[in-house]
Design a protein that fits this description.
The complex is a heterodimer of chains A (about 220) and B (about 150).
Chain A lengths: L2 H8 L2 H131 L5 H74 L1
Chain B lengths: L1 H29 L2 H9 L3 H28 L5 H21 L4 H4 L2 H45 L1
Helix pairs in contact in B: 1-3, 1-4, 2-3, 3-4, 3-6
Classes of the chains: A mainly alpha (about 220), B mainly alpha (about 150).
């Protein structure tokens, strides 16, 4: 009888059990190994996530810095444009105001010259009319006796003519003065409107220039 | 690109000045009222200068208005238009300086023309009033002269 047969007869557990125990132990070691591996994996994953979070934070911080830099650059551009606008505006306003001032003074001078010329013309006309009337009075005095009706009537007519000249003179001078005042008011109004329109035009033009410049800068930033 | 813009601006500026020059010659030949009054009609020196000035400003302004029309009728994009206008303004400035003006004066050409019209209109009103007064003085004197002559003959 072979040994194996004897063993089988005694019972297979003598051989089987140790094998089973070894198998279980192997399984146990395998499980332990797997758990350690899982643990290691989890640890590595956690470390990786931590690193990722740090990188993300770092990246965000860099991005914030970059945005801040661009904001500063953009603000600088705006400030430069505003500064340039103010300088151009000041220079333009200065030369435009000078030009407007020159024009207003020149127009007032011309208006004054016209008025003086008309007054002179009228004064000469008035002088001629008065001289004519005085001449007529002389003729009346020499031609007609003082007590005559002709002397009285014609003398009265000459006096009425002289009064008429004085009245015309007054009304003409008043009209000229009133017209001159109205004219200078209108000239001032035209100048004021022109100044307002010009300032508005300059603001719009320079405003457009600035916005163009900034949008050009923005395009560059985007690139 | 810049030189192309310069050439465009220069060619158009020359064309505009030519057009305006042709207009000036035509106005002299056809008797433009302002030029006619300045050259021949009104003997009054002050108002003569106003007519001359009004014509001159309208003529100078016409250069700019023609330039504006040129751009209004074109499809040139805004950025290019600005560039060309800058070049055009440079030439226009030189042109105005040759006439004794500054570029800033050009802002007020329209206002000055309006003001000159006001002066000319007021002057015309005064002249009409003076003519009326002169006529009334002459009439009064003639009537009295006639009365004296009639009385003398009695």
């Amino acid at each position: 009888m072979s040994l194996m047969k004897v063993l089988k007869l005694v019972g297979g557990s003598i051989i089987d059990k140790p094998l089973e125990i070894i198998g279980r132990q192997c399984e146990f070691y395998q499980q332990r190994k797997n758990a350690a591996h899982d643990q290691k994996l989890r640890q590595e994953e956690a470390e990786f996530m931590q690193k990722l979070e740090l990188d993300r934070q770092k990246f965000n911080a860099e991005l914030d810095d970059m945005i801040a830099d661009k904001e500063i650059e953009r603000s600088k551009k705006i400030l430069d444009a505003i500064k340039e606008y103010q300088i151009t505006m000041a220079e333009s306003s200065k030369s435009i105001n000078e030009s407007l001032g020159k024009m207003t003074i020149e127009l007032r001078r011309q208006a004054h010259d016209l008025m003086e010329e008309k007054k002179k013309t009228y004064q000469q006309m008035q002088k001629d009319a008065t001289n004519n009337a005085m001449e007529q009075l002389k003729i009346i005095r020499s031609e007609f006796p003082e007590s005559s009706m002709e002397y009285q009537i014609m003398g009265e007519a000459v006096r009425a003519q002289l009064v008429g000249i004085v009245e015309s003179s007054n009304s003409f001078m008043k009209m000229i003065d009133a017209d001159f005042a109205k004219m200078t008011d209108n000239l001032d109004m035209i100048s004021r409107n022109a100044a307002e329109n010009t300032n508005q035009y300059i603001s719009l033009t320079l405003g457009g220039l600035i916005s163009n410049r900034l949008s050009g800068g923005d395009k560059k930033l985007l690139k | 690109m810049n030189s192309q813009r310069e050439i465009f601006a220069l060619v158009n500026f020359i064309e505009i000045t030519r057009e305006c020059r042709r207009q000036l010659v035509a106005d002299v030949l056809n008797g433009n009222p302002d030029l006619f009054r300045f050259l021949y009609e009104d003997k009054n020196k002050n108002v003569q200068l106003l007519y001359k000035k009004r014509y001159e400003l309208k003529w100078l302004e016409a250069h700019w208005l023609k330039c504006k029309t040129l751009f209004d009728n074109s499809n040139i994009e805004l950025a290019t238009r600005r560039e060309i206008l800058k070049i055009f303004l440079h030439w226009y400035q030189k042109f105005l300086e040759a006439w004794g003006y500054e570029l800033a004066d050009a802002f007020f050409f329209n206002a000055e023309i309006e003001s000159l019209e006001l002066l000319i209109d007021t002057n015309q009103r005064w002249t009409a009033q003076l003519d009326q007064l002169e006529m009334s003085f002459i009439r009064e004197t003639k009537l009295l002269d006639k009365e004296i002559e009639e009385a003398k003959s009695l």
